[in-house]
Amino acid sequence: AAGNAVKRAADNLVKAAQKAAFDAQDDQAVVVKSKMVGGIAQEEMLRKERELDEARKKLATIRQQQYKFLPSELREDGQEQ
Asked: What pLDDT digit, counting tens, does each position of 5-14 carry?
């Protein structure tokens, strides 16, 4: 009976060690995947920020062009009527 108890304890120890090693590998894979996803997300965010900057510049240009064509009485450049 004692021999069986030792055998079961050894088997349980081996299973626990295998599970711990497997879990550690999963944790490393998750960290690597998270870094990859984080890097991809950061690249996408930078790309979107550049697009936003370009859109703002285009909008400013459009507004400047529109302002040039406003009648002088509608402009807000400090001129009194």
From this structure: 888 888 888 8
Instruction: Collect all residues with Cβ–Cβ distance below 8 Å to 11 and sequence separation of at least 6.
Output: none
Q: Provide the 8-state DSSP code for 69.
A: T
User: Position of tokens 């349980």?
Assistant: 12
pTM over 0.90: no
Distances (CA, A) of 59 to 14, 34, 56: 66, 36, 5
Return the closest-CA partner of residue 64 out of 75, 73, 54: 75
Q: CA 39: distance to chain centroid?
A: 7
The answer to whether the beta carbons of residues 57 and 64 sit under 8 Å apart is: no
Query: What per-residue confidence (pLDDT) applies to 81?
Result: 43
The pLDDT mean for the chain works out to 78
Q: Which two tokens stand for residue 78?
A: 């400090």
